[in-house]
């Protein structure tokens, strides 16, 4: 057994003689795994009551005859033209209220009953036909779920989701704070999806009612999860054992992958960093993907061997970079290294996207040689890394609700972006060589000595108590500005900031000051100084020690970085006290432990 190596292959785009060439080249490059059928719905179901598996049969048979493993997709990542014509409800209504017609790929309404029924039926027919095939090692449902819809079906689905969440209109009105602006709802049917036509006044992140928008983000993530679950259930009717996945997109805001993770048998994701200088960002994404299922290894389902084709500028991976990034994924927990795409498409929007095999079908290109060399390395390492775990004593908390709530908030600053702050703290840990896990706020924290919680804007459930337990047993907790601001409904705590984190942090925040991105207030930490930007919280120690102070403005000399001793736990012959560090400067990274 070896690490699955290969990727997304679309032979339906090519005549059969090209397939033979491809498989000879796959042998030369040590390609042993192919993801097939990702966008074949129009081929497998060319009309409402017609199913034709002849092309997919040949694809599967040819790959199996060559001894390759198959990740078989349900093909529902894009619906066929006939479906939109027969059932106009399947296309989305966008944020501005425009009903879309057929086109593109992320254009299926997740709440459309026709889409749900027919996508599940397609998955059912494919599973019924290929279940038990010895070459199939995984099922691939849909493709890169994302986006949003605001149609009448989604409005009805949203109201049903809200009934389940709040039970009563009184509970909903309290959660959404609807006494503001005369918004008290007296009937469920009065509720509209938050869009440019309702609560939003300047784009998706500018909303009059953050609670309404936050719940719609949660609902839409759940609605797409229902689509995945429909297809997985259909597969399970014929195949109870083969693992089922879908390809996530790493640091992707619209879908809460923590809510999805329990429903996947293993996590897989597509690694397309925004540039070719993002090793640290990729490390964060890998760690997040590994943390979705409590450290279980994941698949690197897609990466480009050379260039992408979806951005204004698409830099080429320099010699050796593809190899390094692939091994980085393995080091962070990947149990598969796969590419998009195996052969470059001839037309449409991805014809210039990088591929293992280019349009000319050559084996002497630099890219092909590098892919073959990496394949040989993976073959030599064999099963040594498969199933491996990455032990860590440091946890970094990541929370989609905090991400959403922070970035739809009217204040204190729209310049503070959740990922920027999280990346900064992850990068500091990464640079220090710390073994760390990126985990949800619901994770068990008992195994960690250090817990880092950047911009923990929303504090839900018993999180404050669990963080306090980390410090009380002698661990360290690190948090930052804009933490402890709101509850799970995005309503402010009726106490001093940082809300339920106050006793743990030993501070209260009296005021805060937001400034433009070029404004700097230096923070003195001993003889050194670091640059604080964007947001400056005026901190009043409530027992915490001041570690760093602002140097300028009317609050010069006041606390910017604090450390609080928390707990009193007997450990052997000594008393161990945990440390809590509160940071109020973007460029600061301080971790202390009293062990």
TrEMBL record:
The keyword Nucleotidyltransferase does not apply. The keyword Magnesium does not apply. It comes from the Bacteria. Coiled coil: none annotated. It is an enzyme of class 3 (hydrolase). InterPro entries: Beta_galactosidase_Trimer (IPR013738), Class_I_gatase-like (IPR029062), GH (IPR017853), Glyco_hydro_42 (IPR003476), Glyco_hydro_42_N (IPR013529). Keywords: Glycosidase, Hydrolase. Residues 8-380 form the Glycoside hydrolase family 42 N-terminal domain. It catalyses: Hydrolysis of terminal non-reducing beta-D-galactose residues in beta-D-galactosides. Belongs to the glycosyl hydrolase 42 family. This is beta-galactosidase.
